[in-house]
Amino acid sequence: MEPTTPAVAPQANPVGTASLITGVVLLLVSIATTGVSQALPLILQELDLSIAQVAWILPLPSGVVAVVATVLGVIGLLLPNRRRVAAIIGTTLGAAHLISGIAVILSGAIISLIVR
Question: Which of 45, 86, 102, 108 has a 20 to 30 A CA-CA distance from 70?
């Protein structure tokens, strides 16, 4: 009879936890960006700017946070013998935001080509 090795419980995953926290921050940044975009016409009128001058700035903060959440989540998933739930949630939040952002950019480009 061979001796059995006891099953080792998965350890905490601080990188996965960081990914989850970053994913939650991403949600908050997205909500803030939506609020700012609603007030954008008034803000632009006060600053005497056009939408073309500032439209590219709005998605930058959430895009950066989404990349960080995704990268941390993937790293957390690749660590051996670690809990994965937080890393999965953080990766999902970040990647979903990146995919939806790319879809918005592509649809805007397609519409601008059609409307010409």
Answer: 108
First-to-final CA distance of the chain: 77
**Alpha carbon of residue 26 to chain centroid:** 5
In single-letter form, the type of residue at position 110 comes to: I
Torsion sign across C-alpha atoms 68, 71, 75, 77? positive
CA dihedral in degrees (5, 10, 14, 17; nearest 10)? 170
6-22 confidence digits (pLDDT tens): 778 889 999 999 999 99
In angstroms, the CA 67 to CA 88 distance is 14
38-67 per-position pLDDT tens digit: 888 898 899 998 887 887 788 889 999 999
Locate all alpha helices (DSSP H) within 1-116, ordered by sequence: 14-47, 51-54, 59-78, 85-115
CA distance 29 to 101: 14
Task: Count the Cβ atoms, other than its own, within 10 Å of residue 19.
Answer: 30
